[in-house]
Amino acid sequence: MTILETIEQEHQFEYPALYKQLDRDGMLSWGKLGPGWYANEFPRVKDNPPFLLFANDFEIINQEDISGEVAEGMLFADKSHRFVPLGYTGAGDWYAFYYNLKDGDNVPIVLVYHDSNEAVVMAKNLQDFIFARLLETLIEEDPEYPGLITEGDLATNAGNFLRTHGRYLSPRQQEIAAGIYAKGVITEDELRDILEAEINFDWLDSSFPYQTND
Predict the structure, then answer these.
(1) Are 174 and 135 in contact (CB under 8 A)?
(2) Contact 170, 182 (CB under 8 A)
(3) Which of 29, 162, 163, 193 has its CA 20 to 30 A from that of 54?
């Protein structure tokens, strides 16, 4: 039994099929996380980037830590909210599946802020989330906060990122992403227009409180 299967059984839910496919493909491992990760693991994984390695401000969660976060109530969330974390930002906010809005096979992904009682819906499902993060990666970098994709040759890293992630997109998303990656850059306006046209749904960008007032 895999770690994800153990988590599913323990907490009585089912991960999206695409997330389990990523796990089978070895995409959910960034190597040994911790203080020595950049020196020891990044050189090993960068040529075949695992899940969202080069995405802006995304760090994967250790699978061994997921069950504890779910059991304890992530970020002291009200138990009525069914969050299952998959990553976090450098500031300590969490990306999580949000099962309260599950619709068929679609489990939305939300960004849960650690320092305010707010969660924001980022995508209808994991496929749309990957698509959005792929495109967002090519927004012109702030030189004060360069992303991992700038470590080494940007064009090579971008090509590898698209190669390992494109297979998990829909054919139309693959076509759009390939076009943007061929250009090598996307503006914030272009990104907004594409996401509005391609992954919009009723809850996108909506927010809600997730903690009790006790």
Answers:
(1) no
(2) no
(3) 193
Q: Extract long-range pairs of 34-41: CB within 8 Å, 24+ residues apart.
A: none
Lay out the sheet containing 94-98: strands in order across. Answer: 59-60, 83-88, 94-98, 109-112, 119-123, 207-208
Number of domains in the chain: 1
Angle at 2 between CA 10 and CA 66, to 5 degrees: 55
Radius of gyration of the chain measured on its C-alpha atoms: 17
pLDDT in tens, 4-49: 999 999 999 999 999 999 999 999 999 999 999 999 999 999 999 9
* Residue 26 falls in which region: left (phi positive, over 0), alpha (psi -120 to 50) or beta: left
CB 82 within 8 A of CB 99: yes
In a domain, 213, yes or no: no
Can you tell me the mean pLDDT for 70-80?
77
A 10 A CB-CB count for 81 gives 20
The domain containing residue 141 runs over which residues?
Answer: 3-203
- The predicted model scores a pTM of 0.95
Pairing of strands 59-60, 83-88: antiparallel
